[in-house]
Task: structure prediction
Amino acid sequence: MKILIVEDEKPLLESIWGYLTKQGFVCEEASTYFQAKNKLGDYQYDIVILDITLPDGNGLNLLHQIKLDHSDMGILIVSAKNSLDDKLKGLDLGADDYLTKPFHLAELNSRINAIVRRRNFQGQTKISFNEIEIDPASRQTNVNGKIIDLTKKEYDLLLYFITNKNRVVTKEAIAEHLWGDNMDVADNFDFIYTHIKNLRKKVEKEGGSDYLHSVYGMGYKFSEQ
Result:
């Protein structure tokens, strides 16, 4: 799960980044309106944590643009403003939730997970695809009722494929989703092949089917056919 944190208060930005990274999210940062706008133009995110009051622009204007360009992107507004008008305007523009500063990082994490469940899995607490079941709260994966031991990247990869089931995803999109800004240092996509190979082996070991199909010249598709 890839998150863009748009926040101009550096200590808070670092705290959010550190906490969510430990929770298993891939996080990127933007401390200004224009940094955020540039990143949103270049990369795809699952969720944007958006401060309304930025030094060089209005976060609500950025929210409006996000909804025009990325209608499927989750938005969580955070702001020191405890104004009902700001909250209502943000929600009317398409934000999924609103959190007023100061807040506990654990609550922020819970709000993010709730947005993910609502947007991608119709609010389900557990995610199922035939014999595969994922529990995002515990980051536990079962195949035919048996727990399989996945690395962080293997878990993120499986969740990404199930979230995008029946769609072709490119190797570039997979790398960007799993590694964020760090993908730029990679010389090739061998690391993706390795993670996919290991994931397949672990699922099949417990009697699971191989739903991962290579699409020549494009990437991969997770589907029954």
About this structure: The chain is about 45% helix and 25% strand. The chain has two domains: 2-121, 127-222. Residues 20 and 114 are 14 Å apart (CA to CA). The mean pLDDT is 86.
